[in-house]
Amino acid sequence: MAQGFSAEPGTQGPLTEIPPAGLRRIRLWAFAIALGGFLFGFDTGVVSGALLYVKHDFDLNSFEQGSVVSVLLIGAMVGATLAGRIADGIGRRRILGLIGAVFVLGTVVVSAATGYPMLLAGRVVLGLAVGAASAIVPVYLSEISPTAIRGRLLTLNQLMITAGILVAYLVNLVFSSAEAWRAMFAVGAVPALLMVAATLWLLPESPQWLIAHGRPEVAHRWIASVTDDATADRLVERTRQRLAEERAERERQTLASGQRTRRLLAPDVRPALILGLTLAAVQQFGGINTIIYYAPTIIEGTGLSASNSIFYSVFIGIINLAMTLVAIRVVDRSGRRPLVLWSLAVMTVSIFMLGLAFVVDMNSVLTLLFMVVYIAAFAAGLGPVFWTLIGEIFPPAVRAEGSSASTAVNWVSNFVVSLAFLPLADAIGQGETFWIFAVICAFAFLFVSRYLPETRGRDAEEIGAALAVRFGRTGRADGVDGTEGAAGMDGAAGAAGTDRSARSSRTGR
Question: φ and ψ at 443, to 5 degrees?
């Protein structure tokens, strides 16, 4: 699903010990920042219902319908690429306000569209904001987060994306009886204006950005407002030292930038690159965003009216949100590998059955059931865990480059699938198209079974050793991967066993 697209969000929040009153303020700030994630979800989800009416008003063929959906992703790729550099120049708070203003502008253009070209232009503008939000929100959240609750505040972005999709489905339902697709889009201006207002009157600037740009006294005042002066003194000085170290490291790496690119293609890094790029592609080519973007259109194909199709799509949004919550709670307990394997297994069966439902003309209830099961399986595994994995499988020296490459492949794959789905379904049939996705999910299951080690609780060197074994780049010393290989869907015990074997293998070498 189109969520969590930033390549490598910041991980060193500046705050540690915060009193309850300070924590409440930080949580309020985090919610305001995460409105960017909510708008990300809303604007990718609202088109699913609006499309049912837009296609008649503007007489769109299947390719034009697909382009209305997918052109947002072109804007998002551009927005994500530009946002980081702009944020480093003007600050996190100002760029968040700018993103909110772009959301408002795009919403106005789409809502007032007089034809297909203007609609496309508005969707591109919204895409710029979506991409920028996907890059900036996780970083901003990280840089205001106390260590103790950083994980929870970072997952708030993911939750707000799925909440935005659900709210978009509910908005579609409210306006479906009047076929008011312009109103569906226009509702997005409300959270966008709230985000702009928050940057003007509520949110502080990131203390890390302030210190990096020679304004430590402002950062001190900000930190002291939620802690105390002594804590602020200590944290400002520690942040200064760390930023100086990072600046020196960046300068060293800039001199070796060509070497870094070659390093990503080096034989010992190649397994991580192959794994990251393949997972990025199959996450989208498994068909998830055809459901998210086209759920009402797909359900309408079973014979239901447009308004009923939108009503049933709300259940998909609810399941998506609920299962994302489940994944966030269990990923650090169950491990990454078993979640991804179970997810792909259920996705394969459910989307095959969804295709069969169209081919043999099953009733609408069964069709919706297969869609819901598929969404649940994705949201509980491959969807969120992919973004965790690409932050873990690459060696630290090339982690940003590897994560960025994987993210780029994910964006491009999302665009291709979103654009091609309706024309392909028109050409060969909806059921047969879903069977193609089922084949891709089955391939992904086999690929993950063979090549993905457990990463939970492992450091970068251990993960690299386990990847080398799975890609046949080293001998199976001390039974490396024996525990994982014994069962495709291994649990936490198997992961622990594999951790021990990988460590012994590394020590032996």
Answer: -60, -45
Q: What 8-state DSSP symbol labels residue 398?
A: G
Distance, CA of 378 to chain centre: 12
The sign one gets for the Cα dihedral 231, 232, 236, 237 is negative
Joined together, the tokens standing for residue 42 give 């809303």
Q: How high is the mean pLDDT in each 10-residue block of the chain (509 residues)?
A: 38 55 82 91 90 91 89 87 81 91 96 95 94 81 69 71 91 90 95 95 84 76 73 73 66 56 75 91 90 78 71 84 82 82 95 93 86 91 81 72 77 86 89 95 95 81 86 54 40 40 39
Q: Give the angle 27-390-473 at the CA atoms, nearest 5°.
A: 155
Say whether 15 sits in a helix, a strand or coil. strand
3-class SS letters over 78-119:
HHHHHHHHHHHHHCHHHHHHHHHHHHHHHHHHHHCCCCHHHH
pTM metric for this prediction:
0.74
CA 128 to CA 70: how far, in whole Å?
13
Q: Which amino acid is at 173?
A: L
- Lookup: tokens for 212: 């990096």
